[in-house]
Amino acid sequence: MKKSKKILLIVGAVGFAIAIGILFYSYFQGVREWEQLDKELSDARTRETSYEHTKDTREADLAAAKTSLNDWKKKFPPSVNSIEYGEDLFYIADKCHVNIVSIAANKPTGKKVGTVTYSVSSFSVKVQGSVSDVLAFIDALKTGDDFDLPWNADIKGVSIGGSQSSITLDIYSYK
User: Is the pTM of this model over 0.85?
Assistant: First the structure.
């Protein structure tokens, strides 16, 4: 054989070997990328499962919080102008030297007297103070001299005890 054919054959073999090497390199590079993508997909599925569990937990927490909020809303009185009434009640309590421990209010109702409709709000007030101071507080509520607002109190019940006294009353105001 001639030298040029041998050289051509060697160059062809080397070229073929390089082409095969490039193909194997590309194949194994693709396999590594496939394995990496498969690992990332597996990790993503694991995170998705974790996120779904977290989402379920959060939704359960939200439902429990909404239930708790509704329970607490039931314990607190609805809006009955109790802030304004409360200001008067605290002012009168301060003048009579009693401390208001708690105030509970019910939803106001309408009461028609003749042609006039009054808003009636029921309150339960617990106070601390001496018997004479509690009686002065009850008298001040009944007479209504120190009310800033145009309302009238109807005392429904009184329980004077050792450390606390309870007073239930209806507050009438003009609608």
Answer: no
